[in-house]
Amino acid sequence: MLVSLTVGKVDAGVAVLLTEDKRQIEFPSILLPPDISSGSIVDITVARNHKSESDAAAAFHALQTDIFRTFGQRTPSSPTLRCRNATQTSVVLEWDPIDIATAELRSLSLYRNGSKAGTIPKPTEVHSTKLSGLAVDTDYVFHLVLKTSAGTYSSDKLTVRTHKMTDLSGITITPGHMPATIRESLQKTAETIGAKIVDTVRIDTTHFVCTEGRGQAWEKAVENNIPVVVPDWIKGCEREGRIVGVRGYYLNADPRMRQIGPGTSQPQHQQGPPPPPPPQQQQQQQRPRSPLMSPRTEVTPPTPERPTRERNGDAPPPPPKDEDNDDDKKSDISTTPEPKSQAGEQKVRTEDLKPSAVHESEEDSDEEDEDEEAGKAAEAGLPIREKPGQPSIQEKKDEEEEATFQDVKL
């Protein structure tokens, strides 16, 4: 197809071409002959290139096939989790190398009982982990979660139960420097209790046994915080029938700290009866204990208002004299001793007044008690019973009103 166009304007990069019907077409000036200018007429031939179209379609199809074969046929695999070793308070888990196919790795996390326990560092290199601080004889459920750019993949749930104190099959020993005879004895004892012996320090090594602290294996055990004990620790576990503490079996520990003899897990029927207590202790146990008296608070009721007697230096006068007693008293007066001095007379007067004051206080307290009982009976509407041989309340009041001072003759 041949088309004739008129050049209208030529710029640095674009030329404006005009058609016969006066339409403008912007055309790259680099494709025009170099000697054209405004007003020049150019002929342009337009044709379809079928060969180039077929070549481009074939190249695109090959690219799509390569992408499908690389990214569309393989997907990441779910991790496989298993238990490597379990003890009374720890669990060692391991898994196969993760396969993420052509996807991009995001993270690998470990879950315990449905809660996230932690993220595995360097998942492409690390294929095991150890969890410590677990409870004795308890079930735990673990699973892995793999996150990639192609999606999230979880492993099957794994149930692990920690061992009892009497189960020694989880002990894994790495022997260090020791005499040959002790090593042979160590192997026999380990076979007897069901423990495992490995030559190198691994993640599942629970104890490093040696008699001398030297060597690369010893350094690695110390670096990984693995207990370094003497061979007697295995003997102690065999003797006790359960796992024993390592505090007294370190290399530099005092042997007196070790527990020698049957452990606490021994049945009670094998133990003898406890020795009888000494005789003094038996007597102390047989003595009845006196009950402890609890403190008691008593409230004293207020004393009713009553007229008080005046107690000055002079004593109250005696009752009326009888004629029969006048003669006796006169005889007493006639036989009175010699007069005493003023100080002696005052001392005698004071001694004579003391008993009467005590007697009067006792009488006052008895009268107050009787008055309270009478007041309670009157409030309750009950008749007041008077004791025989005692004057009534009204008579007491009359006597108090008629009381006068009495002269005491010394």
Automatic annotation (TrEMBL):
Top-level taxon: Eukaryota
Positions of the UniProt region annotated as Disordered: 255-410
Annotated Low complexity bias: 262-271, 281-300
GO cellular component: exomer complex; trans-Golgi network
Compositionally biased intervals (Acidic residues): 361-373
Span of domain Fibronectin type-III: 75-169
GO molecular function, one term: protein dimerization activity
Biological process per Gene Ontology, one example term: Golgi to plasma membrane transport
Pfam family, one: CHS5_N
Sequence ranges assigned to domain BRCT in this UniProt record: 163-251
Biased composition (Basic and acidic residues): 346-360
Matching CDD domains: BRCT_CHS5_like, Chs5_N, FN3
Name assigned to this protein: Uncharacterized protein
Organism of this sequence: Massariosphaeria phaeospora
Lineage of source species: Eukaryota, Fungi, Dikarya, Ascomycota, Pezizomycotina
